Amino acid sequence: MKVQITTLEKLIDTVLAKGDYSITERRLITNVLLYAETSGKSSQGVVKLMGEDCLQKIQSLYKPRFQKETAMSAFIDGGKGSGILVSSLAMQAAIKKCARTGIAIVGTNNTFASTGAVGYYATKIATHGFVGIIMCGSPKVVAPFGSKDRLFGTNPIAVGFPTMGDPFVIDMATTALPWYEIIRAALTDEKLPENIAINENGELTTDPHKALDGAVLPFFNHPKGSAISMIIEILTGPLLDQVNTLDDRFMCGNLFIVINPELFSTKDTFRRNISVMLQRLHNARLQKGVTKIILPGEQSLLRRKEALASGFVEINDTLYERLLSLV
């Protein structure tokens, strides 16, 4: 169904108000969830308010702490708080440092569960004229190639680039499907696609309820897909002193790298160059059966623009009813 964005915004805030958040913190989380819903990324939207590990139930042990800091880097202990709030702090710190030094790298650890739609942070960074690379560790729900044990997270990565127009943002999980897409499917009683998840015995399944007891698979259930996930697992885990056990599998690390194009050229030159490259891709000759080249992130951007212009967002009926029940 179509829901007015302002109505959805108020509902999200009302649910978050049941948790231990200030008005400012609720606003930050709401912005990330609305970004996801208006972009068509429902697995990163209001579904985060549902289930045992929902956002409104997160209780941090303490406020985020800067453990180490230099002119171009920072390391933040998240205090077991919301991944969204800690990532917002890391993003802001990285942008400020990059503006002064030309490059910044900020890591976080000890954050609870998801950072939400990673493209949100990449978009914000790109609007400052910088290149943003964000890698996020996530709860251990992925079975590496050949295994049936949950050892990796879905480990999303987003990269944002400034252009002459809207930021160009690539945002993706390193698995066949985001974990919260499986949760969403279970809530709405939808079947999963083939070959993306296994049950607790390691057998392929399309039943989201059985997948929740099992694991999701890397890209194409292939060694190369598993390797991509492992790279991000290392950069958001061991590098950031975040090595999880079964008891703390929901604790996560995140890495923000922000680059000022002026280290190599000028912001305007970079914007023009990438815009020319994107246009060349759009103008490429089409394969048989293809009517239009659609680049990564473009459909999400179009959906967001249409939603913001109309003031309404499409949301699954069952999810909306569940959201209303939480108010």
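The above is record 1. Record 2 follows with the same two-line structure.
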Amino acid sequence: MQNQKKCHQNVWILSGTADGPILAERLLKLNYVVFISVVSYKAGNVYPLNRQLHIFTGRLKNKQEIKDFISKYKISFIVDATHPFAINISKNLIAASIDISIPIFRFERIYRYKSNVEIISNFKGLPHEGIHNKNILLAIGSRALCEVASFYSDLGANIFARILATPQSICKGFSSGINHSRLAILNPNKYEGNKLEYHLCKYWNIDYIICRDSGGYSQIIWDEICLKNNIKLFLIKRPEIVHNSLTFSQYDDLIKMIVQL
């Protein structure tokens, strides 16, 4: 499948801990040199040890930093597997790929919902009627937590939140105005099922859950919990970005395209 000419082509993957390791492993087996960009040291730990795998930690601030990286490491292909809501990095990747004229591919997971799901356009998209005294669990990250919690509290809802166990998220969670007894500090774990989240929703008697349409295992967990507990799930619609790249939702299709080029 892989010929000698492709043995030293460099592929740059920007991803988290779900899709990046799978894509990297498959490309390494085909003898590509793989560069990985992650935002935290912990995220880099899930990747295998391999002399043809190079991991870089930290955020890329602008288009010029991306162009410098491409030039320095002689990147042949870019795979943007970042979070669907990380729109700034995706826009900068697209702009840089246009300037340098190298292929960029977008990978996004597609998930088929099982529960009673409603897509909303933004964080404040829940129907306002009948929301008074409802128990709402926010699983939206910490960036907009204070604003969203305040908005629904003013409508008379009871607000709960799942926040990630990172210093930044914990700090924003405790300063959000949400009662501290209604904060769950935990990271979603696809290997241990959803028992903790399930029991939290039962204990708190949650009526609605709001999370982002990421396609990730966090969303899958909430979907399964909503199905089992007859909870209404509201998914925030993914931002729309005009891509000059091909978008894939299957690993094999993306790998085949890279090999063909």
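The chain has a mean pLDDT of 89.
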